[in-house]
Amino acid sequence: MASKIAVIGDVNGHFPAVLQKLATLHTKQNFALVIIAGNLFASPSDATEEDEKNIQNLINGKIEIPVPTYFALGSNAFPKAVVEKLSSSDDELCHNLHFLGKRTTMKTSEGIRIVALGGQLDPNIIAGQSQDKYPPYYSDTDAKVLRGATTADILVTGEWPEGIRSRSKVAFNADEPPREQQCIADLDVVLKPRYHFSTSGSVYYEREPFFHLPSEETDNLTPVTRFISLAQYGNPNKQKWIYAFSLDPTASHPISPPSGSTINPLTHSDKKRAAPAHKEHALVYDDGRGGRRGNKRRKHEARGPIDASQCFFCLSNENIATHLVTSIGESAYMTTARGPLPTSQTFPKLGFPCHLLIIPFSHQPTLASMEEEERRATYAEMQKYRVSMNRMVQSQGESEYGSVTWEVSKAGLPHTHWQYMPVPADLIQKGLVEAAFKALAENYHWPTFTKEDVGDGFEETSDFFRVLIWDPKNDAGKQTSLILRFDEKIKFRLQFGREVLAKLLRLDQRVDWRNCAQMQPEEEKDVANFKNAFKEFDFTAD
Ligand SMILES: [Zn+2]
């Protein structure tokens, strides 16, 4: 069903007037939601006494918000009172008025998927993702993380995508044109939003719609993006500061480009991805959008029971514990395990638990359910993480530890991943690690392990468990791969790998991760120690 939406440019503190106009419009239009794409508040340095009074009235519920409204992070810092209220109220400033967030993926009750990246690019945020959500700056990594959302109906950004005006005949005369960023162009190329909103001071700019080339990924349809940059409220030339439209998130894309449109003027920084690649992305949101998805179902494909907006392995999920994320690559990322099996004393030479998860960006139950190009890139990068970890363990552990990496490849799981842990080298060299996996499988009367390498798993026709064992006598890239294939007759225990290692390392009382939960400061300390050790081996850092 189509919903009516209004998007507003910079308000700069004039919200009493803007909200009044909005209330009048709303009685006629009946908006489902409103997005303020620019600055809701005046910059604290320009704020007058009246501005401050208005903010207090807003926070105290004395100004009525007629319709659910989300305000983006613009270029201005938020007033102190606003930050205080937001941080104590789960980002609700008052009834019907919510902070959209700096780096957001959300789905409204109407099924509209909104992705937002607020503020301005700050190349000096070097520690990966920006930690604090209210200051008006984002990092390259913040932008990269959002690519994991895969699709969007509406994209809201504080800055423009690099190259947006090329191939356009629409005039744009601004004294101070908005800054353009390559990482935002990347978002348009990957997410192919139906609408992309930004702001541009006192000037309005609506580009000709642009279309993305049809590919398997788009079910051979032609997604179209409308880029609209709003002027500020009260601008001297009466340029457009509010844009109202109807959006049906279930509508399918056109078969051919609409008249008056141009081809996508933006290129992805990674050329490989920019090419009209024949690959199909994960459908992130399980919302039954027949038109977008097509009817094809690949042999390994099974939809996970959890959709990506709730998935704790999806990097784009706002609720994941970002302080545990230790490295972000192109197709996969690495995070320290919550409730790790080892403690920081288990491997004295390391001094941190070193229980890591290597997780693909793609929300898929198995590697095999990814399309070829993505599957290869993802598997290669997961291996690269494993090898880099081995190098780190070799160097820090002075060859006293090897490693074990395990995976449950099972249709119906929400989001595939690997777990990585060091083990004492002598247990590997005496064959005890291999024996422990085999023995517990036998205890459960499961099929036996075979020694073989199934690579990215595409040739496999059944579910399987795999463990990759690395002996520090060997090169960090070497592995012994054991596979246990199983079918639905077996009630496979998802914690099998952890169970085996708990027995082997005499950590039985830690077998359930919930009993190993740490307080955040302790987690942060382990992560900091880990990052420090991994720094020189992290291929994603440059
Ligand atoms: Zn996921």
UniProtKB/TrEMBL annotation:
Which GO cellular component does the record give, naming just one? post-mRNA release spliceosomal complex
What would you give as a GO molecular function for this chain, any one?
Answer: RNA lariat debranching enzyme activator activity
The UniProt entry, under InterPro entries, shows: Cwf19-like, Cwf19-like_C_dom-1, Cwf19-like_C_dom-2, HIT-like_sf, Metallo-depent_PP-like
Q: Where is the Cwf19-like C-terminal domain?
A: 305-430
Q: Name a Pfam family for this protein.
A: CwfJ_C_2
Can you tell which superkingdom this protein's organism belongs to?
Eukaryota
Q: Where is the Cwf19-like protein C-terminal domain?
A: 480-540
Q: Which Gene3D superfamilies match?
A: HIT-like (3.30.428.10)
Q: Which GO terms describe its biological process?
A: mRNA splicing, via spliceosome
Which PANTHER family does the record associate with it? CWF19, CELL CYCLE CONTROL PROTEIN, CWF19-LIKE PROTEIN 1
Kindly provide the name given to this protein in its UniProt entry. Answer: CwfJ domain-containing protein
Organism, by scientific name, is Karstenula rhodostoma CBS 690.94
